[in-house]
Amino acid sequence: MELLSTPHSIEINNITCDSFRISWAMEDSDLERVTRYFIDLNKKENKNSNKFKHRDVPTKLVAKAVPLPMTVRGHWFLSPRTEYSVAVQTAVKQSDGEYLVSGWSETVEFCTGDYAKEHLAQLQEKAEQIAGRMLRFSVFYRNHHKEYFQHARTHCGNMLQPYLKDNSGSHGSPTSGMLHGVFFSCNTEFNTGQPPQDSPYGRWRFQIPAQRLFNPSTNLYFADFYCMYTAYHYAILVLAPKGSLGDRFCRDRLPLLDIACNKFLTCSVEDGELVFRHAQDLILEIIYTEPVDLSLGTLGEISGHQLMSLSTADAKKDPSCKTCNISVGR
Predict the structure, then answer these.
(1) Residue 201: how many other CB atoms lie within 10 Å
(2) Which of 51, 108, 219, 253 is the most exposed place for a label (fewest CB within 10 A)?
(3) Is residue 172 part of a domain?
(4) What protein family does this chain belong to (predicted)?
(5) 3-state class of 35 per DSSP?
(6) What angle do CA 192, 195, 198 make, to 5 degrees?
(7) Are 56 and 123 contained in the same domain?
(8) What is the pLDDT along the chain (330 residues), one digit of tens a residue?
C-alpha cells in the first residue's frame, strides 16, 4: 500500500479553557484513504506547577477521521491557562487490522484560555449552595505588617495602591495575574459581630466604613470559589466603582451580582440607611480595584495571633474537592 504523506501546516484556533480546533494539510490522495487521526498532546511543565496536583501523562488521542478542522475537547486532559504542545499523525486501518501510519507532523505550541463567564457562573452556583445565612457587618478591613502601612503613608501619598492579583485560587480565573486591586476582608465573628482578632497577614489592621467602598455607585462581581485542602472555602469578589478601569475589565469577564440581593455580599437600604451583610459560611476575599485613602479609615494593632496557616498568598486550589470544582478544566 502506498505510504501516507506527513501532515504539515498545523493550525490551532478557537481556543477555550478546555478545547481547541485543529487542522492541518495533507496530500489530496490521502484525504479519501485516512481513517484515523493520532494526536499527541503534551503539557509544557513549569517550575511553578502545583506539586500536589495529580500527575499529567502525555495524551495520545485516537480520533475517527472527520473533515477538518476538528474540535478537541476534554476537561480530563486539558487545563485552563496552560501551555501545550501538539503533533499529529494520520493512519489507515488495513485488512489485517494493522495500521499504516504517516510520519509525525511538526510540533506546535499553544496556551489554553481562562474560564469564561459561563464557567464562573457554575462556580458561583456551587458557592451559593454553601454560603449560609447573611450576617451584618459595618467595616472592611485589611491586615498587614506595620512597614506596609508606613510605606503607603511615606511613599504613596497616604494611599493603599492597587497591585496585581497573585495566582491563588482556581487556575482558570481570569483575574489572576491580570486584575489590579487592594484586598480586603469583611468576615465577622459570629458571637461578637466584629472582625476576628487573629490574622494570617500581619498584626496591623486598617478598617474603613463599608459604605466608603461598597455603595450604589459600585459594581460587584463574582470572581472565584476555591479551597486549599481544608474544610472551609473561599470566595473572591470584586468591588469596582462604576465606569472605572477595574469595572471595565470585569464587565467582559466576570458575572455581575445584584448588590442588594445575592448570596455573598449585600448593600441594601433599610429605614433610609445602607445596611451591609456577608455570607457566614464562606471566607470572603474582596478586591477593591481603586486606590484607598488611609485617612478614610483607622489603623491599629490587633491583639490576636498571626495565623500563617490561613494565608492564601499564591494558594493552590485542591483539584479533587467536589464542592468547589467544576467539570471544565482543572
Answers:
(1) 20
(2) 51
(3) yes
(4) Belongs to the PHYHIP family.
(5) coil
(6) 110
(7) no
(8) 678 999 999 999 999 999 999 999 999 989 889 999 999 999 886 655 444 344 444 568 889 999 999 999 886 678 899 999 999 999 998 888 888 999 999 999 999 999 999 999 999 999 999 999 999 999 999 999 999 999 999 999 999 999 999 988 998 999 999 999 999 999 998 878 888 888 878 889 999 999 999 999 999 999 999 998 888 899 999 999 999 999 999 999 999 999 999 999 999 999 999 999 999 999 999 999 999 999 999 999 988 665 555 556 667 788 889 999 998 754
Joined grid coordinates for residue 3: 505510504
Whether residue 77 is found in the same domain as residue 125:
no
Instruction: Give 44's contacts (C-beta < 8 A, 6+ positions apart).
Output: 82, 83, 84, 85, 109
What is the edge-to-edge ordering of all strands in the sheet holding 19-25? Answer: 8-13, 19-25, 70-73
Q: Do 84 and 41 form a contact (C-beta atoms < 8 A)?
A: yes
- Together in a domain, 34 and 126: no
Which residues, at least 6 apart from 154, have a Cβ–Cβ distance to it below 8 Å?
none
Residue 158 resides in a domain: yes
Q: Which domain holds residue 19?
A: 8-112
Give the angle 49-79-47 at the CA atoms, nearest 5°: 15
Note whether residue 326 is domain-resident.
Answer: no
**DSSP letter string over 138-187?**
-EEEEEE-HHHHHHHHHHSTTEE--EE--S-B-TT-TTTTT-EEEEEB--
What's the N-to-C CA distance of the chain in angstroms?
43
Its pTM stands at 0.86
